[in-house]
Design brief:
Blueprint lengths: L2 H21 L5 H25 L5 H25 L3 H26 L10 H19 L8 H37 L1
Helix pairs in contact: 1-2, 1-3, 2-3, 2-5, 3-4, 3-5, 4-6, 5-6
């Protein structure tokens, strides 16, 4: 067990805390929930950076890190849809969660083919993740920050994240397509 893996496990452990805070009937619940989500988002970046910097990459970390990310994002999106059950919230949430499932399955399949490198994390995927995290953070927090309408900015960023989600998914599928078709002709 190393520091990056401990940070990843912390992120997984924060999910029930996040959910409990989301449902607390207090004025400060959304602020606390947003802080927990921010900590989770920062540990997502930090664990990867530390793993590379300290040369502490591991098979466990390679497995747990994306799982932790997807669990936290899915939990946040489901809670946001529950709080605001409208199509304009549900559709982006479904697209984002659906893309995560699709790309996870694609990566697993490509690994079986020995072609995992074809669907490695791309720059557009990293940008998508950053925009998505900020969008979710602002949507959780809700309250204006000074004159900035957090919720409105969060919605705009959520739709930008949704577009980036679709774009990155298409890029991953396009990169994987030759390997998938090669396997199809051999079957």
């Amino acid at each position: 067990m190393n520091i990056p893996n401990l940070l990843t496990l912390l992120r997984i452990g924060l999910i029930p805390v996040f959910v409990v805070l989301f449902y607390l009937p207090t004025k400060w619940a959304y602020l606390a929930c947003a802080l927990v989500f921010a900590i989770a988002a920062l540990t997502d970046w930090l664990d990867g950076w530390l793993a590379r910097k300290l040369k502490q990459t591991s098979a466990l970390g390679a497995f747990l890190d994306p799982v932790a990310d997807k669990l936290m994002v899915a939990a946040a999106l489901v809670l946001l849809v529950q709080r605001d059950p409208a199509p304009w919230m549900a559709v982006p949430a479904l697209v984002i969660i659906g893309r995560e499932i699709t790309i996870s399955a694609l990566r697993e399949w490509m690994a079986e083919l020995g072609e995992r490198a074809q669907v490695a994390v791309s720059t557009i995927g990293k940008v998508k993740t950053a925009v998505q995290m900020v969008a979710i953070l602002l949507l959780i927090y809700r309250d204006p920050v000074g004159v900035v309408p957090s919720y409105t900015v969060g919605y705009v960023l959520l739709y930008l994240a949704t577009l980036l989600t679709l774009w990155s998914m298409l890029l991953y599928l396009r990169a994987a397509w030759p390997a998938l078709m090669r396997n199809e002709t051999q079957a």
